[in-house]
Specification:
Blueprint: E1 6-9, H1 15-26, E2 30-35, H2 39-52, E3 57-61, H3 67-77
Parallel strand pairs: 1-2, 2-3
């Protein structure tokens, strides 16, 4: 991903979440598409965003109700938490 602002939209694989991701992306944000179970739809949306603007979307498959999964996501991929 680039130095653009980044938006993480939870539950963004389908319906309103996908619309929100598309809007942020069209405004120049890089986006993180999140899904818990709609993996095919999330993958498709990420690929669509990247076909519009290369390397502007990433996919995160994580259960946000599990604290450990969220902490691993943030520390491993985004260097947000100190370990």
């Amino acid at each position: 991903m680039s130095e653009n602002k980044v938006a993480l939209i939870t539950g963004s694989a389908r319906r309103i979440g996908a619309s929100i991701v598309s809007k942020f992306h069209s405004e120049g944000f890089d986006v993180i598409v999140h899904a818990r179970s709609s993996t095919d739809a999330a993958q498709e949306l990420m690929e669509k965003m990247n076909s519009i603007r290369a390397n502007s979307a990433n996919l995160v498959l994580v259960n946000l109700t599990e604290t450990e999964e969220v902490e691993q996501l943030l520390s491993k991929h985004y260097n947000v938490l100190d370990e």
